[in-house]
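FORM 12-B: Structure-to-Sequence Request
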């Protein structure tokens, strides 16, 4: 979940070139001649993106309140508040303000709110990305093919390296022919 949150984070930051509003503006511009179906899908995507507000308090799916055995209750907090407290408090920046506001609800509730929100952002990102090849196919944008073909994920995560091992009594120097050769320096 942390990896997915980190990967979609630039899409949520206004200062980034790939912020969803900038991307949607560009897609809307290029889709102006695409016909009503594609333009309508892009407009619907824009509407979904506007619901994702890192500083917002809107409920996207749930809100939570906890009552402790002593009778004290937390404030009702939206899934948006909890999710971004997890993202910016627990995972990325240690945002003490967000953590303090959600402290009574704890890490687990922040994570439970973040998981569906991160998944939602991933799905929105994939849907948004899906509009680009359609615009390319209609001849409305000119982008290189390798943009859609370049690998961005390491598929194999088990790595095996071949190595040779020699042993010698403690204190015995490494023979010159076995010393690693480091360009420009000592081993």
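FORM 12-B RESPONSE
SEQUENCE OUT:
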């Amino acid at each position: 979940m942390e990896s997915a949150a980190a990967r979609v984070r630039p899409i949520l930051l206004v200062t980034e070139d790939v912020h969803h509003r900038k991307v949607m503006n560009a897609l809307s511009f290029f889709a102006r001649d695409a016909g009503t179906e594609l333009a309508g899908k892009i407009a619907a995507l824009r509407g979904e993106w506007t619901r994702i507000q890192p500083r917002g308090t809107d409920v996207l799916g749930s809100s939570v309140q906890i009552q402790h055995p002593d009778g004290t209750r937390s404030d009702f907090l939206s899934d948006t508040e909890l999710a971004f407290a997890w993202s910016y408090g627990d995972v990325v920046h240690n945002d003490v303000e967000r953590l303090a506001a959600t402290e009574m609800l704890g890490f687990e509730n922040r994570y439970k709110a973040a998981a569906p929100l991160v998944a939602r952002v991933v799905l929105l990102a994939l849907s948004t990305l899906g509009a680009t090849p359609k615009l390319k196919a209609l001849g409305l944008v000119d982008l290189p093919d390798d943009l859609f073909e370049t690998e961005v994920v390491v598929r194999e995560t088990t790595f095996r390296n071949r190595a040779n091992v020699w042993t010698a009594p403690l204190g015995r120097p490494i023979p010159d022919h076995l010393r690693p050769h480091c360009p420009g320096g000592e081993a």
